[in-house]
Protein: MUT7 Exonuclease
Organism: Smithornis capensis
Amino acid sequence: VSRQLKEEIRRGFAGLQDPLAGLLAMLENSSDWKGKGHSLGYYITTELQLWIKEHPAVVQSGTQLKKLQARVLGILSQCPANLLDPLISIYQLHTADRNYLLEHVSHLYLKGDYKEAAILSIKLKLQPDQDVEKMCTPLLLQDRVNVVEDYVREYPELQSKLLQILDTWCEPGFNIRDITRPYQGLSRYKPEKFNRRTLSKLVFRLLDLFNLDPALCPNVINQRHLRTLNYLFYKRFVEKTMTEENWADHVQSTVGQNRWLQGQLLQLLLRHCEGRAAARWAQHCGVPADLLPPRLAQQLQELHTPHRVEEATKADNYEDSKKKDYYQLPIPRENIHFLQTWEETLQCWEKVLQPGQVVGIDMEWKPSFGMVGKPRVALLQLALEGEVFLLDLPRLLQQAEEEGEREKLHRFIQRLYSDAAITKLGYGMSGDLNSLVATCSALKDTEKQLQSVVDLLAVDKQVDGEPGHSHEERGLRQPEKGLSLLVQHVLGKPLDKTEQLSNWEKRPLREEQILYAASDAYCLLEIYERLCKDPESFGLSSDLTDSLVGKHSKKPRPKKQLNKQEAPSPSGQQCQGPKVQSWRAPVPPRALRVVCDNMLQGLGRYLRCLGVDVCMLDSEDDHRRAAEIARQEGRVILTSGLPYQTLRSQVGEGRCFSVNCSEKAKEQALQVLKHFNVQVSLTDVFSRCQ
């Protein structure tokens, strides 16, 4: 605002007998201030707010102030958000009679101005005296989740109450129409946004946002656990890609002593196993005898099994003859060191921190299967030429805490990542670093200090694979994904990923887990060496070493961490963090053809506004419909969460991308545009029929 205008406004105030009444008269008789942006009315109001601080004698009190407060309340429901705080301050509405304010908000609510009633309640801090369910229900029906979040943000007791209400709505047998029926004529009503699936997502988002105990929401948690059980049974009995030990570990930790989940487990066992095997697993997983049907209880009595678990089937066990099909560690078993004490770790440090060293780095954590909270690293793998160190991170951190030297591990890791004389190799390093920060908060600035890092995820798409074979040929005959696929392209055999979904927090680790963890880190060394020796045969430039190793200067915008099994990979997940060079040429929005899964309709609409060719599933469509459309029309699938695991196996490499379902459509769209290197121009916006 020009100095001349400010001076003119202030002269106007000085010439008024009652500037507060004068401002109200101006606002009541003008419509200029009701639009978006900074109007003349806005500048006059904010200037008066400053002027009053310099002239406190102008401030009204008593009966006159009450009359002004009554008038300003009539304006507040119409004014833009940027005028609320100045007007509340000028007319001291926080000192007004609370019952009078509540009555005014109630009047707005009864008129159907739900958003305005909620925002005014937030500004005047009226929430403790209101019914959270009554205030938030119409906002949720209008998909105004951001207003709901603001409404409960400062009140932990209201956060808990809201989550308990949402959880009640997710109860099996609860009729959601009982909630929606009174609001059928509601403006902006979005019934497709109000179902158990979206409510469940909202519950997890709020639990994470406000850091609340998941025990507040038993119905939603049980349903999420049930989806996890279904996923585990699919991996074990349909895909046959999960070992028996892994499967049993996860099933037991998922079900625990929850009687409802034990009943669901029993149904799944009866569906997937023959009677004798189902009885054996029911016994192993601790399903109470009174839940068993008579036929299964009888078989259980006849088993007379010892305490150890016998295999229900050996059909999918890995045989020695089959191991020749997978990448094998080229070092002896005694060169894999599992470290649990600081004394053992010292020898590792001395070797790893040598100038000129090349280190393969990987991390493992227990899969969270979509539950609340960020994964915490359970194992840190450091591979050097000829040996691998496996650091038991939880045990080392506990020991450092007990000895009062918690900074030990932080200093070592920070020095490793920031030392320009040591080359660090990884695959999806940013995801690993995010989990490392969740495990050790003192490492939050590590990503800003990265030097000499090589994220092989960033060059994965540049690699042409086996000489003489095109991507298309490999895509048709290769079921491998991510790092395993890169290992196959460069070294000839894929990784054996059957231990990927292990419970990495359980001790002792099984021998298969130790070998898997060591292989995951050591293969990075072999890939790097092979690519540096012969880059041309893989379609890479001859100056590979110079282009790969570089400084990391800018920290990317943090993203919600994915499960380890959903780690960013070229089969669809975002590639972020210490990138070395872009593997995609920029493309216009019209060149990107996508199909959005049914939980991402907001993202689909946003991308379509930007000119992207978007096809969207209907709310009732099965997720698998996305794969059919992608294959028929040559589209990329955009999905989220567990469906990603299923869909990515049904389309070609790089044809399925998982977005962060906890973010809003705009952030999701930016994630997609960045990943596919889409450059939007002004002419692209609204270039497609909406």
